[in-house]
Specification:
Layout: H1 7-29, H2 33-52, H3 56-76, H4 78-89, H5 91-101, H6 103-115, H7 117-130, E1 134-138, H8 145-148, E2 152-157, H9 160-166, E3 177-181, E4 184-190, H10 206-217, E5 221-225, E6 232-236, E7 239-244, H11 246-254
Parallel strand pairs: 1-3
Antiparallel strand pairs: 1-5, 2-4, 3-4, 5-6, 6-7
Helix pairs in contact: 1-2, 2-3, 5-6, 7-9, 7-11
InterPro entries: C-di-AMP_synthase, CdaA, CdaA_N, DisA, DNA_integrity_DisA_N_sf, DNA_integrity_scan_DisA_N
Enzyme class: transferase
Subunit structure: Probably a homodimer.
């Protein structure tokens, strides 16, 4: 006898698949991929033991773990859950949906976003050539205001000379991060969360670890310029691209 699938069942399966994929990507970018795989494996074993083979004793033991599993997951993954809920509730995402429905507004916003790339590229080229250290976070979907308030908050046009002056080694704000949101500089001298992954390259400095830490908690695009070697790096979604060219940086920013 064949199973009867309706449209409702197909939608249900697709929603579950999307939900699992969203959780997987969140855990992957936060460095908890192996832990997520372990939990998923345990869940599959529980289904096989208790639902398919109906082993009563082993099933009863696993059921006790599953009944407490929700509270354990909330404790273990409070950071990842906070990130996922923040992304869902981000007002910027709702504005993005509104722009998607409004073609003229969408095209205007794309032009505005591309307009800031030119001064950013010029500033990065000059700072890399002069070996001026820099850390620039560009807001995407998740709001960066909490991180902006750890530094000096202001609003200014994205200007190459201004960016270079802020990161000049004698500037009081050069050690922190710059935050760009809504096509404007909104803060400088900001403190970002540091990534403590054990598998990170030991040669990575505090700027690179801070960029990676922010990319694990948000969807921001982060530019890093090494003060020692003048090399450009780029962090996004929990991954860092080291020693990239200005052409590669431009493609990553436009993506």
């Amino acid at each position: 006898m064949f199973l009867q699938f309706t449209i409702k069942d197909i939608i249900d399966i697709l929603l579950v698949a999307l939900f699992i994929y969203a959780i997987y990507t969140t855990f992957k970018h936060s460095g908890s991929k192996a832990l997520f795989s372990g939990i998923l494996t345990f869940f599959v074993i529980w289904i096989i033991v208790s639902q398919i083979f109906q082993l009563r004793l082993m099933g009863a033991i696993l059921n006790q773990f599953v009944s407490l599993g929700f509270f354990v997951l909330v404790i273990l993954f409070q950071g990842e859950l906070r990130k996922m809920l923040t992304a869902i509730g981000s007002t910027r995402r709702w504005r993005s949906l509104k722009r998607f429905l409004n073609k003229e507004k969408r095209e205007q916003d794309l032009q505005d976003e591309r307009r800031i790339i030119a001064p950013l590229m010029l500033a990065c080229m000059n700072m890399a050539r002069k070996k001026t250290g820099a850390l620039i976070a560009i807001q995407q979907g998740i709001d960066l205001t909490p991180f902006a308030h750890t530094g000096e908050v202001f609003r200014a046009e994205v200007n190459a000379r201004l960016i270079e002056n802020i990161f000049f080694k004698n500037s009081p704000l050069h050690d922190g991060a710059m935050v760009i949101a809504d096509n404007s500089i909104i803060a400088a001298g900001c403190i970002l969360p540091v990534a403590y992954n054990t598998d990170l390259n030991k040669d990575l400095g505090l700027r690179h670890r801070s960029a990676l830490g922010l990319s694990q908690e948000t969807d921001a695009k982060i530019i890093i310029i090494s003060e020692e070697r003048g090399r450009i790096s780029f962090a996004y979604r929990g991954e860092i691209h080291q020693d990239i060219t200005t052409d590669e940086l431009q493609l990553l920013l436009q993506d």
